[in-house]
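Hey, resending since the last one bounced:
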Amino acid sequence: MDLIIRNIDPKVIYSIDKMIEQYNHQNKTKISRSKFLRDRIEKIPEEDLYKKIDSETAVQLKTMVENMEAYQDAVDKLFFLLITGDTEEALNLSEDLSLKTDKNVRRKINLISKILDAIIQEDKTKAKNLNNELKERNENYDTEEGI
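The structure tokens again:
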């Protein structure tokens, strides 16, 4: 299909010609203004798609970072509560966290809650076994099954 464009500022044409000249010099080829513009015009829909994908990815990354920061703050508070001996409050916080996170993280938090229960009940064997299970799940986190 042909495309005819009229009334373009001569300065713009001059700039385009300079770009073509630079392109020809860098690539040691001879490309016409028509071919150069055709290639550029054909890339417009592609570039628009990339911008949309980049935008969506940026939003997802921002959300993930915010969730991770909130999760880290809660985990810091959880460990503080454990260190200070407020195990009941730690259990409550652990349950709240498990309700607010995705499935994989929720499973880890539930396992941590079970470890806390075992510690409170002074069942060291159960706590140790649960802790080993948590370590194993952390090691397998990148597998297809996840946690």
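Confidence is low (pLDDT under 50) at residues 142-147.

Sorry for the duplicate.
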